[in-house]
Automatic annotation (TrEMBL):
This is TonB-dependent receptor. Belongs to the TonB-dependent receptor family. The lineage of its organism: Bacteria, Pseudomonadati, Pseudomonadota, Alphaproteobacteria, Acetobacterales. It is a multi-pass membrane protein. GO terms for cellular component: cell outer membrane. InterPro entries: Beta-barrel_TonB (IPR000531), Beta-barrel_TonB_sf (IPR036942), Plug_dom (IPR012910), Plug_dom_sf (IPR037066), TonB-dep_rcpt-like (IPR039426).
Length: 759
């Protein structure tokens, strides 16, 4: 296993770690290809990897899985990060263009309305294995950059129990527990997680509760599992803060509150059946509900009307008078001389259902070993969405006191929204891998995707629309096992991403929507198409050479996107809209080297990711200090895409001092990146940074382990996300802000500890 994944271990000696030999190449995961037959560089995490540093944590360990993975603290909450792989993102933030597909037991868990991924609802302790693969059409819509496939635990593969109690800096208290039991052909598994913390920034508490359970049956030729998942979270993600404010108070927030409340329930039935010696069928079906409520406070761009005809009324800046819900104008006296603010609220209610099935054959073809898969999938979701804006007054601490008046001014770009969307996604796919020679395997496959999206305005007809997107995406690859321990590969894949209902509902520059909140227009967008080439070599060295097991990999990739979709800023503060932005490219190099023996584990992983625009254009960025009279900046071919550092390094070391005590550390380095809103690369980028984390664990007695963790050992002051703010809007606060750059501060030094009990 290459890179940082080779270092992962549990309390048992590293030499006893099992190696995952098969990789799931389709969302359904009962069967997979041997790793040396996969024409790519898949990465894997086991359950032991996820809890190596303490409490099980999927996102933190994804960062160590590959230098190609980075995390942006877009909202400033540990429960709601942006996770990017090769420059493509899976984010919980509505408005972030999504480029990764995420599956749980074969069910796609990108939310139907915006393809967002809510990491806070995934129970890390219940994950048995994670596969990360590059772009593949077999994973359906949104896999333009890659796919993350989660396999959950059952009572068959995870017997016994474990309780993990942890706590530490910023008021963090966490509990995770699991128990699995097999009785004959039946087994049951249950896991729960709870986390509460105050957050490393002011007024930024978060909490999460998660549950996962599974009941299963295994017969001689069949398996059947019924699983249930549930989650409830409350996240305070108060977003970026102007640099000038952070220079005096690193924990400061700009305006608050910014809260998100999520609830999810999912019921899933899945099974396999052996039809014959070399034929099997696998299927799943699910029902899933998702409920989200958001509340966001911000500065309001209102002022007393200058026009004598509207004297005494409240107006949009350089715009028409403000009208309230139900009709009628709003008096300027309502603000009492205070600074105007707004409270934006949204609600999303989604119910989804669907399933997939595939037939797998390992029947030889022309006498040659082979594996052939044919499958179908269908996903349906109904979403009811609402959004509104309430007028308020900013307090001296920059929170907003609401006034009970709801703004409904379509001419000013702010109006109530009620929208119903229906998604119908279906796909047909197939792939075949055949051993052309004892050391050479060829793979060919493809998938046809069809997406039907229906939008119905519940307050009028402006949002009504029917959209259909379809495409066949091919893939092919070749692997050559040059030696028993060396594999070379080359592959090509196409994939597509259909615009989401959220994007289709927010694509008009004349009527922008609140960023990540609600939507006011319905022009059509083109689907995004990716074309990916990948080649490389990976392998192991004999342990006799240097007294331990060495794994290594080096590869290059290029993904070209046509009609990429971006969220661009509007002239109205805090609002934006989606548009197709021509062609973009992500290309780079990934390399890893890891060595381990009974006492030591060392690993170095490096990624170079060159993410650029390939189409010259003018992109709206009205908050940019160099924006033209049209509020846009000139983006040239070759300009870097913001938010993606070019160079990433992961260095990990662990030493088992005794059979009971181990200690280790990780160095994470990310180079500089441009701020969102600076697509033309005209401003000074966010500085690169290096963070050192330490860990240690000691077995007090059989079944009881004490562990400790230090994050950001040297208290590095850094930021991994930044954007631009409207100085005109902020001028009402009389804070003398002259720098439009706003960032989310990275987490300062933190200490955590805990106890783990196994039985």
């Amino acid at each position: 296993m290459p890179g940082g994944a080779a270092l992962a271990q549990s309390a048992t000696p590293v030499t006893e770690l099992p190696t995952v030999e098969a990789v799931g190449t389709t969302p359904l995961t009962a069967t997979g290809l041997p790793r040396d037959h996969v024409p790519g560089n898949p990465r894997s995490l086991s359950a032991a990897d996820l809890s190596r540093d303490g409490p099980p944590n999927l996102v933190d360990n994804l960062v160590r899985l590959s230098a190609g993975i980075a995390v942006n603290d877009t909202q400033g909450s540990p429960l709601a990060p942006d996770v990017s792989y090769r420059g493509f993102t899976a984010s919980p933030l509505m408005g972030t263009p999504q480029g990764l597909a995420v599956y749980q037991n074969g069910t796609r868990i990108n939310e139907a309305f915006g393809d967002t991924v809510n990491w806070d609802l995934i129970p890390s302790i219940a994950i048995r294995n994670v596969d990360l693969v590059g772009s593949s059409p077999l994973f359906g819509l949104n896999a333009v950059g890659g796919a993350l496939n989660l396999r959950m635990k059952t009572g068959f593969d995870s017997p016994g129990g474990r309780v993990d109690i942890s706590g530490g800096s910023f008021g963090r208290i966490g509990v995770a527990a699991e128990y699995g039991k097999q009785v004959g052909d039946f087994a049951a598994y249950l896991a729960i997680e709870s986390l509460n913390e105050d957050g490393w920034r002011n007024v930024s508490p978060s909490r999460a509760k998660r549950l996962y359970g599974d009941i299963g049956f295994r017969g001689e030729r069949s398996t059947l599992n019924l699983s249930i998942g549930a989650g409830s979270t409350a996240i305070s993600g108060n977003g970026p803060t102007p640099l000038q404010i952070l220079s005096t108070d690193r924990n400061a927030v700009f305006t608050y509150p910014d809260r998100t409340y999520n609830r999810m329930q999912m019921l899933q039935l899945r099974g396999t059946y052996e039809l014959a010696a070399n034929w099997s069928i696998e299927a799943n079906a699910y029902v899933r509900t998702f409920r989200q409520r958001t509340l966001n406070a911000d500065i309001g761009e209102f002022e007393g009307c200058d026009d004598d005809d509207f004297a005494g009324l409240l107006c949009f800046e350089d715009g028409p008078p403000v009208t309230a819900r139900g009709g009628g104008t709003v008096s300027a006296d309502i603000l009492g001389g205070g600074v105007p603010g707004v409270v934006n609220r949204t609600g999303t209610n989604t119910t989804g259902a669907g399933g997939s099935a595939q037939i797998v054959s390992t029947e030889p073809i022309f006498g040659l070993p082979s594996r052939v898969v044919f499958g179908v999938s269908y996903d349906h979701a109904d979403t009811d969405f609402y959004g509104n804006t309430e007028l308020g007054v900013l307090s001296p601490t920059r929170t907003v006191g609401n006034l009970g008046v709801f703004v409904n001014s379509p001419d000013g770009g702010i109006a109530d929204v009620r929208l119903n969307s229906t998604n119908n996604y279906w796909g047909v796919y197939g792939t075949g891998t055949i051993d052309l020679a004892p050391r050479v395997s060829a793979m060919i496959g493809g998938r046809f995707n069809n997406a039907d999206i229906r939008l119905r305005d519940q307050l009028g007809t402006a949002l009504n629309g029917d959209h259909t997107y379809s495409r066949f995406n091919p893939t092919a690859g070749l692997t050559w096992r040059a030696l028993d321990t060396v594999t070379a590969y080359v592959s090509y894949a196409e994939a597509n991403r259909a615009p989401t209902p959220a994007e289709l509902s927010c694509a008009d520059p004349l009527i922008p929507c609140t960023l990540g909140a609600f939507f006011l227009a319905d022009p059509a967008l083109k689907q995004v198409v990716s074309r990916t080439w990948e080649t490389g070599v990976r392998g192991t060295l004999p342990s006799a050479w240097i007294g331990g097991r060495t794994t290594w990999n080096i590869g290059v990739f290029r993904t070209d996107l046509s009609d990429d979709i971006l969220l661009v800023q509007s002239e109205i503060q805090g609002r934006g809209y989606f548009q197709n932005a021509g062609d973009t490219r992500r290309q780079g190099i990934e390399a890893g080297l890891a060595w381990r023996n009974a006492r030591w584990a060392l690993g170095l992983d490096y990624a170079f990711i060159d993410a650029t625009f390939r189409t010259a254009q003018r992109l709206p960025s009205p908050n940019h200090p160099d924006a033209g009279a049209d509020g846009a900046i000139p983006v040239e071919r070759g300009d870097r895409i913001p938010g993606i550092p070019q160079h990433r390094v992961r260095l990990d070391a662990e030493w088992r001092a005794t059979d009971r005590w181990r200690m280790g550390g990780t160095l994470i380095f990310n180079s500089d990146q441009y701020l969102r809103g600076d697509e033309a690369n005209l401003l000074k980028p966010l500085a690169g940074y290096a963070v050192v984390n330490l860990r240690t664990a000691v077995t007090l007695m059989p079944g009881i382990e004490l562990y400790g963790i230090v994050r950001n050992l040297f208290d590095q002051r850094y930021s991994n996300f930044g954007t631009l703010y409207g100085l005109d809007a902020a001028s009402a606060l009389n804070m003398n802000l002259t720098d439009a750059r706003t960032v989310v501060p990275g987490m300062p030094r933190a200490f955590y500890g805990g106890l783990r009990f196994t039985f």
